[in-house]
Amino acid sequence: MSKKQLRRTALVAVLLTAVTTATAQGAVPASAEASTAPPSAAAPSAVRGIEDDVARSLAVSLTDAGWRSQVRGAALTSAQVDVQALAARSTTRSGKALIPAVREADRRIAAAKGLAASTGSLLRVRLGDDSMREDLTGEAVPLVAAAPADDAAETITAYDSHGHAHTLDAREVPEQPVYVVDIDVSKALAAGLGVLRAEFAKHGVATPRPQARQAAGGWWSTRVTSVELADDEEPWVKGDAEVYTLVTGFGLDGKVRVDTVDMPYLNSDGVVYYPNQILVNWSNYKYNLADAVMMEDDGDTNYQALAQALTTALLTITDQGAYIPLVNAVLDAIPTSWWTDDPDYVDSWYTLARSDSGRRNGAAGNGWMTVEPYFVEQF
Known about the structure:
By secondary structure, the chain is α+β, with helices and mostly antiparallel strands. The chain has helices spanning 3-24, 46-61, 65-77, 83-89, 93-112, 185-202, 303-314, 327-333, 337-340, and strands spanning 81-82, 123-127, 143-146, 155-159, 165-169, 178-183, 218-229, 242-250, 256-263, 277-281, 289-297, 345-353, 358-361, 367-377.
């Protein structure tokens, strides 16, 4: 089963579990039942469409031997190359001719992801697979493809230097070298988490913790000592996804609170990581329980839309004097189109307690992590 199919199946299971749990506590959001129905067809990803246009333009530009040599040198010495910066440094006519189109594409991508124009260049180009390095000779004219949005894609479209489209097997690495146009998801995520935090703070969903709540000399946290996500084959053309977690609970003011936790090390499925990373800062929360929803950005996440959807949904939930699981509210708030394109949902963990220690499996069965209480001392 592909990652897309696995997560879509897991989503239905999680939502059904969430609705059952919340119903027992009288906390089902008004739209929870509707969220378990099959989502409508998603519109094509705006980001992927822009990437595809750039891929075709870059492919055509490679007829210029000098520019082709510059791209080759950059691709062989870097895991990902800033397309706008490379074109700006070029002394060739073809390289310089790309600058306006790439600059405009970067601007449009930032807008499609809900990021500020000041985010800068996001488009990157890389070699599709390390096995292609040997065939990337000075005489080779590589094909250029945009990274697919769908983990379950069976084919991808690549362009040659005449702008003609070629269909490639997404599971079988081609013999001909292929450049892949993609997003710098690490840079996009950093900017996106800033958007989330600003929006949460604006609506009082992430207020600073009062100093009075801290224990003498520091504060208690839950630390992730190891974590692993399910091992599922992805197309050779796919790059790394950036993973982050939304930690939710009730703040000291009784309002729903969301904290964002970046997990940049989670690059590969089926690999156990040992981050010793703080996941929950308990001095921020009223109750001894919190939920965690793990997400990923494969390039097409709109952070402004996500922030607005989450704040709109979570602000309707009030403190009833007892802890209410919030995973279902978070999942229900996420736009349905995200589930029918390339799911940005990874897994979720209900009712993490400050005293929890040991392995906790995700509700969707797509990952696990071991946690431990950890006291953060002040200097």
